[in-house]
């Protein structure tokens, strides 16, 4: 499991993404979802009101956001709060995501993230010393799950040479109605269009986003348990969830630690180097 066939590798190299159905079994999905339910139940929303804006990420410059690189932190949807500053609905239906070190700290997530099938997949893609740099549990809440604007993962997790690959696991069925991924097939061949940089003033993009023709995007509708492998330069997005059903997903971003350098201007500045999945 996880070892890619020549046909799968060819599709990934030409299109910039690959869907692997039934990558996670129902037990793995259930253990991650149950653990997240407990984490959210235990979370005190008055301890932070950190909002993750999927449209304006330059707002996310507080220390809570930066420290989340090596912690488990909770981020709310933009539409979660009323004018009075209070949550409009229960916290369970108000969170955008939890990140960014679930894969290191939480056993259920660590077990999946460091599983042999994930390692086999990274070996198939030619990685020599892959490390997970961030993990996120994304809720895509019914009715308020925010739009994620077109972007490339290499913008945020830049190495020289570029080595970021995204692994996006559907924990629930993802379709057009509840905000599935959309991508421009083959767009990874056009290179990186901009970078997300951190300096003493916070974070910002080094240039504006290009405009994209929505006709070029195709939806990636998948069943729970399917893994979408995403090239770091692939343009992808998701729309708001306007349906009554959530679209939970677990997302990992992996870089190689051999023969490439982690950019010091990236938003993630770890105090401890991540453990590689394997060394070959």
From TrEMBL:
Metal-binding: is it a keyword of this entry? yes
Q: Does the keyword Phosphoprotein apply?
A: no
**Superkingdom of this entry's organism?**
Eukaryota
What is the required cofactor set for this protein? Answer: Fe cation
InterPro entries attached to this UniProt entry: Phytyl_CoA_dOase-like (IPR008775)
Keywords per UniProt: Dioxygenase, Iron, Metal-binding, Oxidoreductase
Instruction: Give an example GO molecular function.
Output: phytanoyl-CoA dioxygenase activity
Protein name in the entry: Phytanoyl-CoA dioxygenase isoform A
Provenance organism: Glycine soja
Q: What is the lineage of its organism?
A: Eukaryota, Viridiplantae, Streptophyta, Embryophyta, Tracheophyta
